[in-house]
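ugh ok so i messed up the first submission bc i forgot one of the chains. this is the corrected input, ALL of the components this time, i swear. 1325 residues overall. if the numbers dont match what u have on ur side tell me asap before i send this to the collaborators (the ones from the other lab, u know who)
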Amino acid sequence: MVDRRAEVVGRLKVLEESAAPLISFLQNPALVQELRSDQQYNLQMLQERYQIGSDQIEALYQYAKFQFECGNYSGASDYLYQYRTLCTNSERSISALWGKLACEILMQNWDVATEEVNRLKETIDSKSFASPLSQLQQRTWLMHWSLFIFFNHDNGKNGIIDLFFSERYLNAIQTNAHHLLRYLVTAVIVNKRRRNVIKELIKVIQQERYTYSDPVTEFLECLYVNYDFEGAQQKLRECEEVIVSDFFLGKQLSENGFVTIPLRDEFMENARLFIFETYCRIHQCIDIGMLSQKLNMNYDDAARWIANLIRNARLDAKIDSKMGTVVMGTQSPNIYEQIIEKTKVLGQRSYALTSNLILTSAAVTASAAQ
Amino acid sequence: MASRFWTQNSDSESEEEEVSDLEDDIPLGGEGGGALPSKYLQGDSDSDESDDQGPRMVRSAKDKRFDELVQTTEQMKNYMKINDWVQLQESFERLNKQLEKVNRVTESVTAPRIYIKALVMLEDFLNATLVNKDAKKKMSPSNAKSLNYMKQKLKKNNKLFEADIEKFRANPESEVEDEIDEDDEDAESADGFSDDDIVERTMNSDEEDEEQEDDGGGWTSAEKKPKEMFPKMDPGQISWEMVDKKLKEIIVARGRKGTDRAEQVEQLSYLARCAKTPAQKLEVMVHVVSAQFDVNPSLNTHMPIAVWKKCVQNVLVILDILAQYPNIKMDETSEPEAENETEKGADYEGSIHVWGNMVAFLERIDDELFKSLQCIDPHTKDYVERLRDEPLFMTLAQNVQAYVERLGDMRAAARVALRRVEHVYYKPQEVYEAMRKLSELQSRVGGAAAEIVAGEDGEEKDGEAVMKASTETKGPAPFVLTPEIVPRRPSFPSVNRKLMDQLVTLIYKHGDERTRARAMLCDIYQHAISDEFYTARDLLLMSHLQESVMNMDISTQILFNRAMAQLGLCAFRESLVTEAHNCLSELYAGGRVKELLAQGVSQSRYHEKNPEQEKLERRRQMPFHMHINLELLEAVHLITAMLLEVPNMASSVHDMKRKMISKPFRRLLDINEKQMFTGPPENVRDHVMAATRALSKGDWKKAVEVIQSMDVWRLLGQRESIMEMLQEKLQEEALRTYIFTYSPYFESLSLDQLMVMFGLPEAQVHSIVSKMMIAEELHASWDQPTRCVVTHNMEPTRLQALASQFAEKLNVLVESNEKAFDARTGGGGLEGLGRRNKEGQDYADAAGGRRGGDFGGNRSGFRNNRGGRGGRDNQAGGRGARDNQGGFNNYNRGNQGRSGYNSGYQSTRYQDAYSSAGRTPYQAGPASGINNRGVQQADAGGRMVSLSRVGSNRF
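and heres the new structure output, hopefully the right one now
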C-alpha cells in the first residue's frame, strides 16, 4: 500500500511538473483572457510567448486524468475544460469530453452534466467516425451515462424521452442496448405530457420483444397490444418490485425519517390511469365495485376518483350511482356527416375549375383574334 | 453358353445406354486373355442381321464405326489383290481416321483388333511387294510413288502398335475358334466393370499401364502413345529441356481444331511424371488441370465424372507441391515464358513463379460439380453417387483456402470460403451430419487403402485407384515425388452453424460486395432453416439486401428468392402469419415461383422463349437436392393468405376501396367460386379453398380438418406443434370473421357464447374483441356487468354505403377533371400528364389512400396491394430509415463497411412501401413513415397550389 502510494505520488509529481507551465498560465485569469476563440492563434501564441508546446498540453491531459483517478473531480473537470480549448486532436477532445462528463456526474452537478451530455451528443452526431460501429458504441455509452443524469435531474424525464426517442438513439437502443427500453418506458409512463409517443414506443417494444422484455415493457404490451387487463395488473405488481430494486428507478428519498421512492408512486399512479383509460375506451358500462377492486381502492375512493376524472374532462362518462356503474358516453361519427364532409368541397372545386376553363378559352379566343 | 451371350446381348440392345456401356468395355474386355474384340463385334453386328432377334435395327454409333473399319479393311484386301497402291494408300489413311473416331466413341486408346489385323496384312503385303522387284518395276509411276509413301508411312505407324502386332502375329487364328467363348467372357467381364471404372482407367494411361500389366500382361496397345513423345528413350534420360519443349508444343496445340483433348491430357500427365523439378512438375500439372477442363467443350454438359475426380486429385497434387516447396509461388501475373525458372531444382532457395490460379481452378471444379448435378436425373443412383463427391470437393476447397490464406490473399480466400458456404448453407443439421459421417467413412476407407500400398507406391492416387493399383509399377516412376502433405479428408465442425459462422465471418471481413451479399444470403437461409427467424430477419434488414438485390446478377437474385422463401417458411413455423405472408407473397405475385426459385421452368402462355433464353434458364437451375418443396411453400403461402384475407374480406363487404391483402389468393377464390360443382379437395389449392369456404362461415372445425388433412405437412419437422398453431390461428380468425360478418345483425353478443363457439379461452376472446374495438373495426363496446358485447350498429345500411361510395367517386371525378385541365393548360404534353398523374396518385395515396373503386381501379389496386404488403416492407422502411440516417449499421459480427449498401441505392421496389407507412405495427423510425407521409403531402400540396397559380397567372 505504501509502495503504491509512493508510486502514485511520484507519478503525480512528474505529471505536475510537466504540466506546470501551462497550469500556471491557466491559473492566471488575466492571461486566460488573452486566449481567443481561434485555436491556431492560441497555440501559436502559447508557443511563442510562454514556450508551451504540444507536450505540455498533452501533459495537461494526463494530469487531468490522473487527478480524476485520484478522486479530485473538480480539478480534473477544470483542467479538462481548459484542455479542450487547446486541444487539436479530435480523438483526445472526445476523451476529454467524456472525462468532463464523468467528473460532473461524480460531482452530481446535474445541470452542468446535462450541458455536457448535449455537447457530447453534438460531437458524436456531427463527427464522422471512422467506422459506424464506434459511433454506435459512443452513442450507447452516452445513453448509459445519461441515465445518471436523467433520473436525478428535475427535468430528466423529458430529457430522456427526447434523447432516447431521437431517431439515431432509438436505433442504437434497438441494435445494441435493448435493456435501456425499460428506462424509456418508465419515463414515458411517468411523464403525463408525453402520451403521444406511447404508440411508437409500443411498436418498438413489439419489435424487440424477442430479444428483450421485462415487466415494465410487458405491462405496456399487456395493456395496449393484448388488452389483457388482468395481465396488466399482474405485471404492474411485478413492475413495482423491479422499480424498487432498480438502481436508477428505485432511488430512495428519505424525508423526516420516511423512506419514499417517488418514482414508484408516480409510476403506479400513472399506470393505474393508463389501465383505467383503456378500460373505459372499450366498455360501455363498468361496475364501480369491480373497478375499485382493480384499482386497489375502496368503493368511495374509486367513485370519487372517477368523478374527478369526469370533472377534469378527461372522461366522457356518467356515474349511475343506483346501479353502481359508470356509463360511458359513446361518440361515433354520423354517416350523414361523413358524406357531407366529403362532398362539401366538391362544388367549390368544380366551380373553380369551370371558371378557370372559361378564362382559358377566353384567352385562347382572344389570342386567336389577335 | 451361347444362349446366355445372346440373351445378354439382346438385353443390352434393347436399351441404348447399356449398349454403349457394354461396348465401351469391348476393347478392354480382352484383358482377360487376348480376346478379339473385332471378331466379337463382327459377330455382334452379324447377329443383328442374320439372327432372328426381332426387327430391331438399333445400332449404336460404335457399331457403325466398327462396321466402317471392317468395310475399309475388306476394301484394302481387294486392292491388295489387284496391287493398286494408290487406292491402298487412300484406304490406309481412311483407316487411320476411322481408328481415331472409334477410339473417341469408345473413349479408349487401344486400337481395335481389326485395325491391328489390317496393319499386319498390309505390312506383309508390303514386304512381299518390295521383295518382288519385277512387280515393282512393272508398276505405273503413280503406283510406285504410292508404294514408297506407304512404305514410310507404315513403318512409322506400325511402330506405335508394335506390341499389338507382335501379339497378333503370335496367335492370329485364335479368334475364329474361341469366338463364342471369348465373347461370352467379354460380356461377363464387361458386366463386372462399372462405366466409371472404365472411363477412369482410360483417362489415365499411367494407371492403365499398370493395370494391364498386372492383369496378365498380354494386352498392350496404343496407349503407349505418349511415350512416343520421347521415342526410344529411357525415361530417366529425359532432360528438363526436353520436357519443357514438349510441354510448349502441346500447349501450342491446345485449342486447335484437330487436337484430341483427351489425348492431350494423357500426354500432359505423362509429362508430369517425367518432370525434372518440382516447379516444372507444378507447371505441367497446372496444364494438366486446364487440359482436363478442356475435355468437355460445351457449356451445357458437364465434365465426365471420372475426369472430374482425376482433376480434383491433380489439384490436390498441385497443393501438395505448393505446400512442400513454399518458395514456389503461383500467380497469374508471372509470365509463363519469362525465364527458365522452373529449371531450378528442389533445393533452390529463391522464389520461383509459376503461372496459375488455384481459386479459378477450384471455382471451375465447383461449377462442374454443380453442372453435373443439374444434368443427372435426380431419381437415379448416379445422383446419389455424385452427391457423395461433395466431401471430396469440400476437402479441396478447404485446402485451397488454407493455401490462399497462407499466401495472405484474403480476397481469394473469401471467394473460396463462399464456395464452401454454398455447399453447406442449404443443409439442415441432420443432412450436414450425414455428410460429415460420410466423409469420415470415406476417409477411413481411403486411409486404410493408402496404408496397404503406402510402402510400394509414393504416388498420388485416390483410394479407389490405389486399391486397384498393382503392387509393381512398371510405368516410369515419377521423378518428383510428392508426399501427401495437404490433408485428404475434410474436417467438419460438428455443428454446421459453426462452420457457417467461421466462413461467413471471413467473407464479411475480406470479400467483395457480391461475395459478401451472397454469403449474407446463405447465412440468412441457414438461420431460416434452423428456425431462427429473428436473427435471419435482422440480418436481411440490416444488410439492406432487399433494396440492392435488384442490381445484382441473376443467380444472386435467385439465392435471394430462396432465402426469402425459407424465411417465410421459418416465420410460418414460428407462427408469425403476417411475416410469413409478406415473405412469400412477392414470390407468388407473378405466378412464376418455379422460375424465381430456379426449380424448373414454367411454360408461359404469353411469350415464347427463344432457345437461347431457355438454355440460359436451364443453366441456372438448382440441383434437385437443393430444392425447396414447392407444394409446402404454396400451402404455407395460401394458408397465410387465407388467414389474413378472410377476415379482411368479411370486414369490407360494402366498401370496395379496402385493400386486398393477397391478390393471387383472391383470384384463386374467384375461380373457385365460379365453379359449378366443387368436388372433394385434391391438391393444395383445393384444400385451402375448401378451408376458406368453411372459415368464411365461421366454421373453424371444418377448416381445421381440411387443412390438417393435407399431406404436405409430413414434410415439416415439428408437425404436432404446427398443427396446434394452425388450429389456434384458425379459431382466432374464424372468430374475427364471424364478428365482422354477423355483428350488424346482433344487438349484443355474449362473451360466454363466443367462447363456446370458437373454443377459445375467455382472455383470448376478450383480447381479440377488444383489439377490434380499439382499431375501430367493430363498433361495439363491452358491457362489463353482463359480460357481453353491445354493438352500436354503426354499420351503414346499403344505401348509406352506396352514397358514401358515390361521394368518393365524385371526388375522383373532380380530381381527374382538374388533372385534365392542368395537363391542357400547364403545357408539357403527354409526358407532363403522365408525371402529374403519378404525383396526383401519390397525393391521393398520401391523403389517405382515398381512391375510387372502379376508376383506374386496376392500377390503384395494384399500388394498394403493393403498398399494403405491409409489415415486412414497411418495417424494412423503418429500419432502413433508421440505418440510413444513422449512417451506420452494425451487425455485431464486426462487418463494418457494409454501410456501402445503404447509400445510393434507389430501390423502386420498395418505394411504395415507404410511402404507405403507418399502417403496420412495425414502423420503427418515426421519421420513416409519418414524416415521409407528411412531407409528401406537403410537397404534393405545394405542387397543386403552384399549378393552379400557373394556371391563373397566365391570364
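quick check: Residues 62-168 of chain B form one domain. that seems consistent at least. The longest strand of chain B covers residues 328-331.
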